[in-house]
Amino acid sequence: MATARQLEHTKTDLYEQDFLAWTEDQAEALRTKQAGALDWENLLEEVESMGRNERNAMESRLSLLLMHLMKWQWQPEKRGKSWMQTIREQRKAIRKILKNSPSLRSHVPEMLPEAWAEARDDAAFETELPLSIFPETCPWSLDTQVLVDWMPE
């Protein structure tokens, strides 16, 4: 009969050697409510990682959306369908993320300064306009402009 230490070692080995098999094993342990078979340390790490991934995806989408809105406003002569399509895609993806994780909505305003800074830097690089052309802080409202079907002019 395996000791608790041996079982714990086996779970960690499986986590490190075959992640898919580990997830299937852990799902079965959860499904059958076998608390002793759970790899608590790695489960905690993975659950926390999932939350970080949602936040990172949201911030990345927001940054890309902001960059294209900047390009739309500050380079009107280069407006085209591809920019509009990117803006539409990012808004759709953001809506989907927020639908699946509604509590994330309250964190979006906290993400805005960093997302804006990244978008500003990327917009300056892509447009070859001076960074100083773009405001240091986002001039647009998240709820009435950025995240809805609004376009800067």
From TrEMBL:
InterPro entries: DUF29. This is DUF29 domain-containing protein. The lineage of its organism: Bacteria, Pseudomonadati, Pseudomonadota, Acidithiobacillia, Acidithiobacillales.
